[in-house]
Design a protein that fits this description.
mainly alpha, two-stranded parallel sheet, flat
Length: 91
């Protein structure tokens, strides 16, 4: 419990580590952002802020009924989004 409390002091709220300044590196990439609707560590609002902060990041998805471990909690939905994205890349 003490270790988790220490971690929480460093990661909450999520500090600005310069992501917005580095998003331009995705300019030539066909990227998609994903977040979980019920994630208490990295709230879905962060994905929306990134999307609004950089118009080159137009596609974000919020996975319903998932928390911090969305690939394990909503595997089918995550795989569907990945397949959809890859299909768009190969089409």
């Amino acid at each position: 419990m003490q270790a988790m409390t220490s971690v929480a002091k460093f990661i909450w709220p999520i500090p600005d580590k310069g992501l917005r300044r580095r998003l331009h590196r995705c300019e030539r990439q066909d990227a998609r952002g994903c977040s979980a609707a019920d994630d208490a560590f990295v709230p879905a609002i962060y994905a929306e802020r990134v999307r609004r902060g950089d118009p080159r990041w137009p596609r974000t998805a919020v996975i319903p009924d998932a928390a911090h471990m969305a690939p394990y909690e909503q595997t089918d939905e995550v795989m569907r989004l990945i397949a959809q994205h890859l299909g768009r890349l190969t089409a």
